[in-house]
């Protein structure tokens, strides 16, 4: 374990806001670049203090952010042979001390390092016992003696908590941990967790048998008794500390939290528990889930053992077994669970028993894996005498075609309303014995269980919903046709036509200058968003600042999300040039009063703020859209192409010539925007005609 924090080339690039290729160039071109301190030949690591000093000396780093310093200190404590999350356990326990007993740390901070090295571990252990009760045993053993690196970390954590609060400080560290271990961790987004919690209703006790970082349990009010289990003991500890931190500091301990490590299918940590609600996003596509040793388990409905390839159905039955009679279970599952032939017998058993109440198709991007439109299954454990046998089938992702979704593109408030209104009306009618709500074409339909029992028992909502009515009907299609005609006529007019061009006379090559050199000379400011401001949901007019994503910029649309104003270091202003770090050659100028004016930057965006006296914004944007400029400034990873914006080369031209070229670039950009608008209207018209002809609601004239 290194005694000082070390960083990789990728982390150095993040610190400086550049691509990894730029770091490789620095190592080759600058003999004073820090030498590797560890790692391997293919993936070396460098001492953080040396890297920070070099970057600052080169003018590439003003000050290492406090969060980054804290994260690197945490990384220096990680044992390469141990779980990556282990240092976060101690950090979480310390932040919990700041959250619940800030005076205790204020007193300890005055002690000498020698006394603090033993006094702080005792204080953390006592706090865990008072606050977490028996659940404190889920915490891996905290050290009894702290070293100098641990004490430095404690002081950094105290500073981070003073700046953001202990709860937000821990959330930021957990986010960094999830990003650094994205292949092992796929946390459920808070918006999806809130949807499952709302479906579960006002439950007094809630269980998540695959809790991970505790996102689903976090969506439940602290007043509920929360149970959880996870295979990874370190993750269980992180989830326990996270839930404790989100509980009000004046809530008396021990808290109503019971999270335990272990394999929930093979070694159930809560035998006999019947919770009011069970919320779960289980692991997917597991082959080794315990099929052979669980042949005679009492959880299997009707004695039907889930097939080896149906691990998700094993989790469904596990959740149902832990739900009290009349209680609800809500699970996020892959869409194949509703249709795989190997699971048809168990799906049929769920229908015949009356346990399965709803299958809701969500848009792609609702939860990981983000490219797959997941299904939300809702089950209610039958009570004696319950003979209700209807299922609500719903397609809540109709406006988000598969593969075109994305967390930033989902209108979460609208999705919540659509799902919850339909589910609550259906469930209330079922409980009261009232008539079920009317079907809504293309959105939801109540289907008798017996009508779903056939050779396939396919529960995919799209298979059973009537086709949606044409948007706007025939009048809407006529409007689209007329609008398309107008746009095409405008494109052929002189006002929208691109500038006429002639071959330039042969001339001497024009000297060039890079964006990085312009930034050092003060001709422009350069800001790179990196991970960007955290999104607070879709841009639906709610609180916060409109947040522009890289996909919004590439598509030329208005911001699709919002950000907390406190989390946005700066916003755009007229004359700024915005460029995505990944993807095609795109550069857009912020116009006064336009949709890009006054917005926050999302992930992977560059903002260039030129001095208009020496650099014309439209000229700058036009040059950055050039294929040649983008190609020369590109750096390549294994699967993506990144624009190293500092390497982009521009011709050195007088300001008058820049403005003339900028005006031409602006006309070309307006022509392209008009083409895109006409194409969008044409696609909508073509799809509407296709759907109407296919459904038989339209016929050719």
UniProtKB/TrEMBL annotation:
Q: Which InterPro entries does this entry report, sorted A to Z?
A: DNA_methylase_A-5, Restrct_endonuc_typeI_TRD_sf, SAM-dependent_MTases_sf, Type-I_RE_MTase_Subunit
Region described as Disordered: spans on this chain: 526-547
**Key words, A-Z:** DNA-binding, Methyltransferase, Restriction system, Transferase
> Could you tell me which Gene3D superfamilies the record lists for this protein?
DNA methylase specificity domains, Vaccinia Virus protein VP39
Residue span(s) of domain DNA methylase adenine-specific: 168-426
Question: Per the UniProt entry, what is one GO biological process?
Answer: methylation
One GO MF term attached to the UniProt entry? methyltransferase activity
Compositionally biased, Gly residues: which spans?
533-544
According to UniProt, the name of this protein is: N-6 DNA methylase
Instruction: Specify the species.
Output: Kitasatospora kazusensis
The organism's taxonomic lineage, starting at the top: Bacteria, Bacillati, Actinomycetota, Actinomycetes, Kitasatosporales
